[in-house]
Amino acid sequence: MTVASVHEGAPRVLIVDDESGILESLRILLKTEGFIPYTAHGGKQGIEKIDELRPDIVLTDVRMPDITGVQLLSHARQVDPDLPVILMTAQATLQSAMQAVNEGAFYYIQKPFRNDELVAILRRAAEHRRLRVENHSLKQEIRRRDKSDASRPIGRSKSWVEVLRLAETVAPTDSTVLITGESGTGKEVIARYIHDLSARVDHSFLSINCGALPESLLESELFGHVKGSFTGAVKDKTGLFAASADGTFFLDEIGETTPSTQVKLLRVLQQREVIPVGATESIAVNTRVLAATNRDLEEEIKRGAFRADLFYRLNVIAVHLPPLRQRTDDIPLLAESFLARSALARHEAPKVLADETLDALMAYAWPGNVRELENALERAVILSAGDTIRVEALPERVTARRAEPLVSERTPVTPTLEAIERAYIQWVLQNEGGNKSRAADMLGIDPSTLYRKLARYGDA
Q1: 260-289 pLDDT per residue, tens
Q2: For residue 259, how many C-alpha atoms fall within 13 Å in the half-sphere facing its CB?
Q3: What percent of the chain has pLDDT over 90?
Q4: CATH among 1.10.10.410, 2.40.50.180, 3.40.50.300, 3.90.1150.180 for 152-322
Q5: pTM, whole model, 2 decimals?
Q6: Are 366 and 182 spatial neighbours (Cβ–Cβ below 8 Å)?
């Protein structure tokens, strides 16, 4: 909806009447009084002009041969609930005036009227419009700030902050976004964040996991179907693309879709329309598409498993989420947030992590990423009787000490000499099958020295 003219200049007024003389006289009057007038000859043309121009005020006759002013009012209210509509009539009755007000008319004026009377009503309508628009904008800005503060994905590591900045940059646009990253890194969280900061925030955010449904059911969910199109289709069904009109539709795990579904998705992105299963006519859709995958789609294209043209349509803006092992600085913040959320749900004070528990969380590689961290802490909360979560409450896979791999995907850091020595001793022990005597021989040190070092490292 375009309402900028209320702020930027003179109000735009659409005049609707079936008499050319009245249209011209009113057009001259309004232009003289500082309005920007547009005219429509009859109700049908009036509806077209409302859709095309999105005026600030509508001034319409009630009795017209094709469409009445009250019908025009109803259409205007559907297009823009805040659009002031002023009805003019030469045959005013109390009943018709009450009907007009009940239908949402701003004012009901009887012909003939004085010019200054009409201008005064139009000025009040323009001021009403301005205040409604400003109030709506203020509420929307407050809502966005609240949502931004409340739902801003947690993290302070450099890689995560870069992700958030990119999300915040693309959010106000309508561009398609492809979010990539390992399972559990928070792809849907970022998608919701983009939606919350977008102009579509007041409309729905719908999502679907493309890998969770068979092809036939997935296409019905995405595009809808008509009654009788397949066994079990006992009535028409609206697809999620149509259901998310004016909002955001998140396609999770899009890399799992079949070539047939990919063709239909490409049509949606190119034509902005869908054809329900079993239908012959298309339906226009106005939804922003966000997609996510944990697959390397460029590799999938080389294998022939994913369409290159669909990839380029999706990959307008690419947002890659780093795995948790590359943002370990965020683990304490994430843990604090999860524990606070758990406490709120249980109506109790948040539990705290013992130092050794936090150390274990920081040392673990988290192959399941943020989702695995949340699940581990949920388990720890349940198993911890007191206010403090001890390391024993964590899953064994988290607390089990293991050698650091010599090659990893972690962001390289400068290791200490002790860390290098420890890693080398663990590597030799692994190669010797855990035999400390043979490991000591390989290291060129006495077994007693090896035992002392292992005890110091906590690996004895």
Answers
A1: 999 999 999 998 888 888 888 888 888 999
A2: 7
A3: 54
A4: 3.40.50.300
A5: 0.59
A6: no
